[in-house]
Amino acid sequence: MALSKIFTIRYYAKNTGFFLVIFYFFFGIVPGGQLLSYHHTLIKGFTGSMDFLALVCLAWLLYNLKCIAFVVNVLSTKEHTFLYGTLGLLDGVTKWRTWLWLHMNLYAPVLIYSCIAAGIAIQLHFYPSAVIIGLFNIIMLIAPLWLYDHKMKHPGTVSFLARWQQWLNKTIRKSLWALYGYELLNNNIKSLAIAKVVSGLVVIATCSLMGTYDERFILVGFLVCILAQVILIYNHRRFDDLYLSLLPQLPVPVWKRYLQTGLLYLVLLLPESILLAYKVWQQAAPAHLIMLVATGVSVLMLLRSLLYFPRMDQDRYFRWVLIIIVSLLFLGLARLYWYGIILLQVPAYTIFYNRYYRYEAPLEKVD
């Protein structure tokens, strides 16, 4: 009971908002009478496609890492050092049973849903998917137990994430234009991972739902992927305001800074671009793939340029996001793809050129 208060109850209380969003997405947006058919179709979709199943497993892995990080953080706090004198004394089967029960309580939402998914996969004769789901969840339950036991035996050790950050910072030389990318990998990896998982699911769903190949259908899916990145672009301004406010004083031409920003966003879109190319490379013309990537980078460049207007708050920013995406959808329907890229790049570079040196970070964001 004491462990439940320390770990389980505190975990679900701390992540109430997260679970409300997940509950709304999986249950709130679906009418009650269609709830079972909705989830049956969803499970049929990802158990019938190995690519889709791989992304679902990745999402489950991220949730499991969230559970592990919570337990490790609790064990690392000063007020819970007494746990080393209680849990640390457990041995043998009792120790592993205690850690397994504790972790299962946190991993329960995924465990329950995955068991249902495995049952439906067997019913639909998707036996390889059922085996993968079963083995995956066994690993998700057993692997953390070793980590918890290692933490109890070595309480002063640095976490894997901290070691990853240290290795990244010491090993790789950072260019100024790529600093925000390293910031995402270091301190905002959760937001980056969520954006990439959502984008991956969108790409797979788009390619799965498309009958005959149509680049306009692919463009719509890729624009939805861009929507998953917009909050990362909005936070780019805050990062520059806080840490790179002196960057404009360096003797670098504006056109070069613009190209460097575009290169950063090209790297940011690489996972979706590679996955999309893998899914449609037998059907899509190379020009179509280049067009999609160029459109994505151009949208992000325009959104970043708009943030050089000091009064561009979050509400105005998302209004512009909607206007830009809707405009591109109409141009895509008319197959005016390259005109759309030009219509994005011209204002993006014009705003960037005229506002870059005139932009001043608001004082409240710098303090």
TrEMBL record:
Coiled coil (UniProt feature): none
The top of its lineage is: Bacteria, Pseudomonadati, Bacteroidota, Chitinophagia, Chitinophagales
Q: Which UniProt keywords apply?
A: Membrane, Transmembrane, Transmembrane helix
Question: What is this protein called in UniProt?
Answer: Uncharacterized protein
Species source reads Chitinophaga ginsengisoli
Spans through the membrane: 12-32, 52-75, 106-124, 130-148, 193-211, 217-234, 263-281, 287-308, 320-338
